């Protein structure tokens, strides 16, 4: 399939009057910031545009994106549905069940679920793609849109620390600052300040670390008891997967979170020598080469043993 141009995508969006933008479940700053910025740009072009009110939106993101949420029960009023940073149908948010017409994404493992797609899998964030799309739609983003896109770009690169960060990422960030993005507030809100519960939880996570293959592999375990003892909620869970990978010499870091149903949610981060997506694909998951995830139908201890066996095989 030929790559869709940004101008063609803009024309396609302008052909529709009422557009609902879909973010992925367990939403992060990239999916929410990108969708909200695009929603704002579409409204400036006279369109009826809203975000699906993702019920898992965190307290940190909610003040930035809630003004764009669609009213309850309004899904049927729309004539066009757009997935933003949603790689596959199984990542649709809780309660959403409509067919999606257009997918805007940067994941290599996109399942191509939409009949039209704007995919750039060489971009570090979906925010970089939406920045170009907003310019195709409305010439330049407003300061509010630039701030939303800065959330997208900065959070999906770990404040420009992850290895997916490249020259285009920094160029996009600089461009967003010129458009008025409030980087000081975003950097403070998302990267400098956390709750007391989050600090207690981080201490427990560091205490849980186990080291394997001469410290090349590090595993963190997050149990429900740890969350309860720390007083942590979903609002304290952002970017926990990065903690285990801070050890010098680490090639693969795994974070295993115990779920209420006895399953384990797994996040894998890796250096270029090892593919995170290859590890998670064994368990039906996927993602990027250096950041991927999956769910294993087993409690943390068993999930850990299963993951280490796969990692040993891949790294042999």
CATH class (first level) name of the largest domain: Alpha Beta
Largest sheet: 6 strands, mixed
Q: What fraction of residues sit in β-strands? A: 15-25%
> Any idea how many domains?
2
- The helix-and-strand class reads alpha/beta
Uncertain spans, ≥5 residues at pLDDT below 50? none
Helix and strand run: HEHEHEEEHHHHHEEHEEHEEH
- Give the % helix: 25-40%
CATH structural architecture of the largest domain: Alpha-Beta Complex
Q: How large, in whole angstroms, is the Cα Rg? A: 19 Å
| CATH homologous superfamily heading of the largest domain | inorganic pyrophosphatase (n-terminal core)
Q: What overall form do the CA principal axes indicate?
A: globular
Characterize this entry briefly:
The protein is of the alpha/beta class and 316 residues long. Helix content is 38%, strand content 17%. It has two domains: 6-191, inorganic pyrophosphatase (n-terminal core) (Alpha-Beta Complex), CATH 3.90.1640; 196-315, Diaminopimelate Epimerase, Chain A, domain 1 (Roll).
How is this structure best described in words?
- Helix content is 38%, strand content 17%.
- It has 316 residues and is an alpha/beta fold.
- It has helices at 6-14, 29-44, 62-65, 126-138, 143-155, 167-178, 183-192, 196-208, 224-230, 276-281, 300-315; strands spanning 18-22, 48-51, 80-84, 102-105, 116-119, 210-212, 217-222, 252-258, 264-270, 286-287, 291-296.
- It folds into two domains: 6-191, inorganic pyrophosphatase (n-terminal core) (Alpha-Beta Complex), CATH 3.90.1640; 196-315, Diaminopimelate Epimerase, Chain A, domain 1.
- A hairpin with a 4-residue loop joins β6 and β7 (217-222).
- The longest helix is centred in the N-terminal third of the chain and has 16 residues, at 29-44.
- The chain has eleven helices and eleven strands.
- α4 (126-138) packs antiparallel against α5 (143-155), α5 (143-155) packs antiparallel against α6 (167-178) and α5 (143-155) runs parallel beside α7.
- The protein starts with 5 loop residues before the first helix and ends with a helix.
């Amino acid at each position: 399939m030929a790559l869709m141009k940004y101008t063609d995508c803009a024309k396609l969006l302008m052909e529709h009057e009422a557009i609902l933008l879909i973010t992925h479940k367990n939403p992060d700053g990239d999916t929410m910031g990108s969708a909200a910025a695009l929603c704002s740009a579409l409204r400036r072009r006279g369109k009826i545009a809203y975000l699906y009110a993702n019920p898992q939106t965190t307290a940190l993101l909610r003040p930035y994106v809630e003004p764009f949420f669609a009213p309850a029960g309004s899904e049927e009023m729309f004539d066009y549905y757009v997935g933003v940073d949603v790689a596959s149908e199984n990542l649709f948010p809780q309660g959403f069940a409509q067919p999606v017409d257009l997918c805007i994404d940067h994941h290599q493992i996109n399942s191509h679920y939409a009949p039209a797609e704007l995919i750039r899998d060489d971009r570090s964030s979906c925010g970089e793609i939406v920045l170009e799309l907003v310019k195709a739609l409305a010439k330049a983003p407003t300061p509010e849109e630039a701030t939303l896109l800065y959330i997208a770009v900065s959070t999906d690169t770990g404040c420009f620390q992850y290895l997916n960060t490249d020259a285009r990422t920094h160029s996009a960030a600089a461009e967003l600052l010129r458009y008025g993005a409030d980087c000081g507030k975003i950097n403070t809100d998302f990267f400098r300040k956390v709750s007391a519960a989050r600090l207690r939880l981080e201490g427990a996570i560091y205490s849980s670390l186990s080291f394997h293959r001469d410290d090349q592999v590090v595993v963190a375990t997050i149990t429900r008891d740890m969350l309860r003892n720390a007083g942590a909620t979903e609002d304290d869970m952002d970017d926990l997967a990065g903690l285990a990978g801070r050890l010098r010499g680490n090639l693969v870091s795994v974070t295993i979170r115990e779920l209420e149903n006895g399953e384990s949610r797994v996040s894998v981060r890796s250096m270029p020598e090892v593919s995170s997506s290859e590890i998670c694909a064994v368990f039906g998951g996927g993602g990027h080469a250096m950041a991927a995830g999956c769910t294993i139908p087993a409690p943390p201890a068993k999930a850990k043993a299963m993951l280490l066996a796969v990692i040993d095989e891949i790294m042999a």
